[in-house]
């Protein structure tokens, strides 16, 4: 793959391929690469060149022709969110590799690592995540993550369990597609819902054959990162409906399931104390960080405040998560494989371990913030 002076992928081949099509366009100020060029620990994404012109509000960042998108073909409908055909088509292109008509994109996709989503974890990783969640007590709830691949791909799409390319394609679409479309360049934008950072809007093709457009929703300064929202217009978003062309109601735990990372603030949480569907036991809130004080602020969904039983349950989980953390060193010794090849039924990879503990921190923080906020509003009522 083409690289910059630091040896980081720079997407020049992708940009040339897209702009060589009459309908293709990439803003001249766009840079593909690492957040901190040359630092392999920093994330890959889309940026405005430090020495480039700003991208003005309303300007097109990227326009991707239909032929350059991996899609379900004529079966595409812009209101459909899943498609077996799309995943089969992606697997077909991945197999073609260099000979694919979409080779610059396919070659980049083939460099992506697998195993980052909880549903892809080793048996030991899944088991420990389940333990951390108190069985099926805390989100993400098991039915949303544990057997996703088996239910969605093997059962619903009649996928082949022994086909590693199909498996890779399935997980790639989980973390990169936009409602059944794999869209080059656009899929390099990382996620943020921070209103000072989220700087784009996206417009899907109305029908097969149309282009995909990615547009600046505010001026983006040289050096800044271009962000997309992976759960735009969800419950914590306070946005104009015109901005909900692409949308999702995923909450923070769902992003962890589908993308393998814990989003920064603002976050959205929903806890369901019982699995009895006939009783309304959920409580849900948005969690934001106050820019000035740095304090966390909880905003409760209307009619979704916790009651006394919920609060006792929250305390129990905070306590349980704390006890687990005290045992971290011993658990690490017993559960983390020295090399990824040793991961399996008994041992998990280092990356799985780290990811589970990042999520543990996020859960503990969210539960503590909920507890404090509920205590504060109760004492206000007295
Ligand atoms: C659509 S891709 C975005 C581009 C990707 N970073 C790349 O290198 O090609 C989605 C993946 O990027 C990563 N990602 C996106 N936004 C992130 C964020 N705010 N924090 C951490 N990782 C993020 C996650 O691994 C996610 O599964």
UniProtKB/TrEMBL annotation:
| Family matches, as Gene3D superfamilies | set domain protein methyltransferase, domain 1
Domain SET: from-to ranges = 28-231
Is Coiled coil there in the keyword field? yes
Does tRNA processing show up as a keyword for this record? Answer: no
One of the entry's Gene Ontology molecular-function terms is:
protein-lysine N-methyltransferase activity
Domain of life here?
Eukaryota
What keywords does the record list, in alphabetical order? Coiled coil, Signal
Q: Which Pfam families match?
A: SET
Sections of the chain in a coiled coil: 314-341
Name of the molecule in the record: SET domain-containing protein
**Species, as recorded:** Thalassiosira oceanica
């Amino acid at each position: 793959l083409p690289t910059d002076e630091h040896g980081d992928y720079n997407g020049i081949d992708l940009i040339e391929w897209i702009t060589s099509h009459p309908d293709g366009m990439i803003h001249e100020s766009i840079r593909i690469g690492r957040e901190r060029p040359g630092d392999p620990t920093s994330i890959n994404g889309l940026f405005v060149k430090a020495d480039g012109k700003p991208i003005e509000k309303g300007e097109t960042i990227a326009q991707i022709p239909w032929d350059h998108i991996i899609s379900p073909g004529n079966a595409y409908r812009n209101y459909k969110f899943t498609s077996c055909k799309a995943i089969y088509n992606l697997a077909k292109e991945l197999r073609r590799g260099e000979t694919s008509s979409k080779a610059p994109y396919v070659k980049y996709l083939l460099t992506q690592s697998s195993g980052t989503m909880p549903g892809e974890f080793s048996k030991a990783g899944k088991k420990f995540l389940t333990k951390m969640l108190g069985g099926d007590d805390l989100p993400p709830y098991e039915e949303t993550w544990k057997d996703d691949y088996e239910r969605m791909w093997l059962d619903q799409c009649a996928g082949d369990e022994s086909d590693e390319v199909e498996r890779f394609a399935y997980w790639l679409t989980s973390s990169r597609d936009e409602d059944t479309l794999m869209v080059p360049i656009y899929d390099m934008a990382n996620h943020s819902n921070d209103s000072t950072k989220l700087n784009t809007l996206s417009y899907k093709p109305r029908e097969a054959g149309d282009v995909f457009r990615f547009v600046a929703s505010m001026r983006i300064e040289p050096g800044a990162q271009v962000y997309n929202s992976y759960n735009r217009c969800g419950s914590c978003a306070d946005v104009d409906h015109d901005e909900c062309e692409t949308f999702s109601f995923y909450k923070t735990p769902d992003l962890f399931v589908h993308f393998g990372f814990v989003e920064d603030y603002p976050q959205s949480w929903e806890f369901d104390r019982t699995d009895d569907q006939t009783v309304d036991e959920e409580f849900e809130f948005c969690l934001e960080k106050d820019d000035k004080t740095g304090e966390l602020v909880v905003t409760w969904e209307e009619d979704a405040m916790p009651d006394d039983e919920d609060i006792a349950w929250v305390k129990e989980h905070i306590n349980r998560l704390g006890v687990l953390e005290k045992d971290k060193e011993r658990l690490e010794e017993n559960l983390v494989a020295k090399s990824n090849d040793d991961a399996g039924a008994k041992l998990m990879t280092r990356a799985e371990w780290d990811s589970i503990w990042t999520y543990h921190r996020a859960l503990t923080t969210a539960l503590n913030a909920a507890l404090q906020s509920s205590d504060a509003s109760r004492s206000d009522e007295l």
